[in-house]
Write a structure and sequence with these properties.
The protein is mainly α and 125 residues long. It has one domain: Multidrug-efflux Transporter Regulator, Chain: A, Domain 2 (Orthogonal Bundle), CATH 1.10.1660. It is built from five helices and no strands. The longest helix has 42 residues. The protein starts with a helix and ends in a 7-residue tail after the last helix. The mean pLDDT is 93.
């Protein structure tokens, strides 16, 4: 798959794909004999993982470290496991904050819905 096709598949720019590879967020992409990127299933799986992790807020540095550890082989499995567990904990903290914010917004929306029906806003902001 060409870089253009991969870009379209994941709805990200070709520059983003090049950046992911250049900084080490994904391993080097398979290339043709003439040096053109030729995304294979493994390459696409790495891109998908990078997009998923970034959209969840995983720092670029953590993704780079994960790729580096993966390339070093099975001896780094414990380190990879620890990195993923740490990132999960960070995501769970973020989730708690988001849930608290949603709860607050839902309360305010409910109050405004009542105010819209009655024409009375009966509490302080």
């Amino acid at each position: 798959m060409t870089i253009r096709e991969a870009s379209e598949k994941f709805d990200i720019s070709q520059d983003t794909l090049r950046y992911y590879e250049r900084v080490g967020m994904i391993p080097p992409v398979t290339r043709t004999a003439s040096g053109i990127r030729d995304y294979q299933e493994d390459d696409l799986a790495w891109v998908e993982l990078a997009i998923c992790m970034r959209s969840a807020g995983l720092p670029v540095e953590a993704m780079i470290e994960y790729v580096k550890l993966t390339q070093e082989g099975d001896s780094t499995i414990p380190a990879r496991l620890q990195l993923l567990k740490e990132q999960r904990e960070e995501l769970l903290k973020q989730k708690e904050k988001i849930e608290a914010t949603l709860e607050r917004l839902n309360y305010k929306i409910g109050r405004y819905e009542i105010a819209a029906e009655t024409g009375i806003l009966s509490w302080e902001e």
